[in-house]
Every structure is written in structure tokens, then in C-alpha cells.
Amino acid sequence: MNKELRNVANVNNKTDEPIIKLNSEKGVVFSPYDGASYAHHAFISFFKGKFYACFSCGFKNEDDCGQSVMLSTSLDGLSWSKPTAIVTPSAFNEPKAVLTASGFYSDGEVLSLYFGYFKYAKIGDDGYRLAVDAHHTDTQLFVLRTRDGITWEKPIGLNLPVVANHPPQLTSSGRLIISGSIVFPYTDNKNGVDGWKMPGIYGNAFMGGKVFDDSESIHLVTKANGFDCNLICEGSFFESNGVIRMLLRSNSNYMWISESYDNGENWTRPQKTDFTNANAKFHFGKIEKNKFYCINNASLTGDRYPLNLHLSLDGINFNKTYILRDEHYDMQFSGLFKGGCYAYPHSIIHDGYLYVIYSMKKERIEVTKLSLDELK
């Protein structure tokens, strides 16, 4: 992390234009049922003629012992196959481990599915997680690979102590960067498996000890670096005119930002932006060379409601705001740390359409399909 203060871009969503509801279609990937009523961390990809969706799935509570990663496929992005477990903690002979879906990356020939892994140092007498997040152990990032979408290789460890927020994403140079929370790994190996390095915004928070990035370490890094916000975490980046802009959740009303001017090798100290965000994860993307978008929950009064889309023609001013979805949904099953109507969106562009996947109250997974003509 660069220690000097720099005038980073004040990325914002200020607008005087009316907020318009977009026309779109919706499909359901997963509906909760007793024994599998937690579903979250959803991602979408397209590979060799099919759409793929993955998400975390647990018995009842968020990130509880035994949480697995589910996989579903679709020909049109709206009608989805019955999800099945693509990997469970039993693959590691650790039934109390926690697996977290971290998304897809494809080089065109191989589809890679990433997932985080960790264990709790202490769990309850009932065999499940404690309400207070206990110390984590063995934080790791793994990848599953397939050439045909049917046969998957065994999990490969990446030697990265990271639970990724978004999967590897290509920069204009061909470098892959993972959006973590306080670590932003990169590699120049197109297979997305080898050669990872671990820069980030953690500074001296680990005092020379092992750096790791998960839902425990983000509290340590925020406090140790004196970031003037509740919590720095869950990055999503885009590249504009040679600058990589990593926007960050702050657990407050606004996103924060860190920038890299050397293709992800160093990052500026995070600073506050004027981009409203309702204490939630978000996803940035690019439609074309100078047309960027963000999917988030911009309203500061709702429960991660509604789901918004913002457009920018300069990578700074996202001054066109739309409502993507605003239907209400009632939670079907109770659970620890569940809630938030439209949560943790991820998106792709394919064949003239934008596909956005998200969870509803952390138990139902949906996909919204939107024609890019709606955004002209």
C-alpha cells in the first residue's frame, strides 16, 4: 500500500436525472427449503454454450460449519437446472469447514470455479458456528476446473490465504486481478492458477506475520491502519485510462476507493467517495470502452432495497441511476445474519444482454436479464 496521500478520483453517483425502472426478465436459480435455507455469494458465467451459476449454500446460518458450493446451468440464463453440490467440506475430510463461492474465470478453453475455505477455531456445543465470529484457521482459496462443463478436476490450492470477493478479472494488459477485501492478488499466468502475488491495502497490520484476507482479518486491517470508517472490505474494480479503481465497502453510507497506477502492484491508501451504498457488496463492470456500470443498493433507507444500476461515461461520474428490481420478498426461513432484500450482485455481459445474479434475503438466488438497448 502506498503510504503517501494522493488525490484519487472521487467516484460518485450524484445525479439530478429521474430514476427510471428498467424493463427486464427474471429467472430463479434456487429456492430455499428446510435443511438448505441459506444461499448467498452468487456468481454467473457463460462457457461453451451454457450459463453457469454458483453460490454458497448452508443448513440455516451464514457461513456456518458444513457450508458447500452449489452449481446450476442454463441455456438461456433464465431457466436453471436443479442446483447440485459441486464441492463440500467432505472433499477435505473436514465436515465442519466453511466453503464460500468466489466465482468463475474462463480463458475460453477451461472454466475455473473458485471458492474460499476456512475453519473456526472454536464452535458451539451443537457443532455449529458461534454467533460471535470465532478465530479462523486455514484460510485458503481453491479452484475447480473443467474443459467440458461436465467433468471437473479435483480442487487445486492456489497458496492464497484469501476468501475472494470477486473472481479473477483481466486488465487491459492481460493480467488477472482478484478483488479481495484487503488483498488484491494478481498473476500474469492466464490459467488463473499459478504465479499469484499478494499486494493490497493491509499496510503493517499483520506485523510481519502471515497475511490473510477473510471476514476476520478485515477488522484487524481497518483498525490497524486507522481507516476512518466502520470496516473496509469487499472490493470490486474497473480500469479506466490506465488506472485501476478498486471500490470498497465501508459499512457506512458510502463506498471507499483505492487506486493502482502500476497494473495492480501497488495501491493507494483507501479514501471515501461520494458514491452511496447501503452497507452492502456491489459489482462494477464495463459495457464498452468508455461506458461503465455499477450494480448496488444505492438507497440508504432500505434493507438492501432496491437493486440499482448506475451508468458512467468517464469512470468517475455514475450520474445515470436506474432501478433494476424492486419487488419485495419475505424471508421464508430464519437464520443467523440473514436479511437484505437484494444482496451481493454479480454480473456478466453476453450477446447484447446484461445478466445479474443476486441473493434474496440470503436464501433465494435469482438472475435478472436486461437488454443493453435499455441503457442507450
Element-by-element helix/strand order: EEEEEEEEEEEEEHEEEEEEEEEEE
The secondary structure category is mainly beta
Mean pLDDT: 95
- Runs in which pLDDT lies below 50 for 5 or more consecutive residues are none
Coarse shape: globular
Question: Your description of this structure?
Answer:
The protein is an all-beta fold and 376 residues long. It contains one helix and 24 strands. The protein has one helix at 217-224; strands at residues 20-21, 25-30, 38-47, 50-58, 68-74, 84-87, 98-106, 111-120, 136-146, 156-157, 166-170, 176-179, 186-187, 233-240, 243-249, 254-260, 271-276, 283-288, 291-296, 307-312, 320-325, 342-350, 353-360, 364-371. The longest helix is centred in the middle third of the chain and has 8 residues, at 217-224. It is globular.
